[in-house]
Amino acid sequence: MRPILGEVHACGYCPQNAAVDGLPLPLLFCVLPILLHARTCDEVSSTLVASGLRKFEEKFRADADLLLALQQRSVTMRPLSLRSLRIALATGLLSLVADSGTIWPRTYAPVRDLPRPADDLLKAGEKLGAWCRPLSLFEVSGILRVEF
């Protein structure tokens, strides 16, 4: 299931009907640290797609340590994220454009008949991708307080 989170994030970032240049590779290293942490995943799930990444960040103003811990979780989970990316590439879920360092989903087919927790994670991953799409890497880095 873990590689699918990256694919869904890529689908949210690179929807079929949008003109984008592909998902910048560094963004994939934030997906698992956000979605596999209960509090941050809950905040993603409870924030509307239209609200965006800045609204998600606002929810942590009273408890800024949770958002600041994202950098350390990203570093700690880097091997897991890299392993997940390798599996997604090897199984054809994602394509890597090496020249530009971007990721593309290979398919936009919906995943069906998943248990509720897995389905919730996939929806949160797609939402996270949609939030990052209109922002530059610099903006995402500043909002999430992570270094790429």
Topology record:
Blueprint: H1 2-13, E1 23-24, H2 28-35, H3 38-45, H4 52-58, H5 64-76, H6 78-90, E2 94-97, E3 102-105, H7 116-132, H8 137-144
Antiparallel strand pairs: 1-3, 2-3
Tell me what the structure shows:
It is a single chain. This protein has 148 residues and is mainly α. The chain is built from eight helices and three strands, in the order H-E-H-H-H-H-H-E-E-H-H. The chain has helices spanning 2-13, 28-35, 38-45, 52-58, 64-76, 78-90, 116-132, 137-144, and strands at 23-24, 94-97, 102-105. The chain has a three-stranded antiparallel sheet with strand order 1-3-2. A hairpin with a 4-residue loop joins strand 2 (94-97) and strand 3 (102-105). The model has no long low-confidence stretch (mean pLDDT 86).
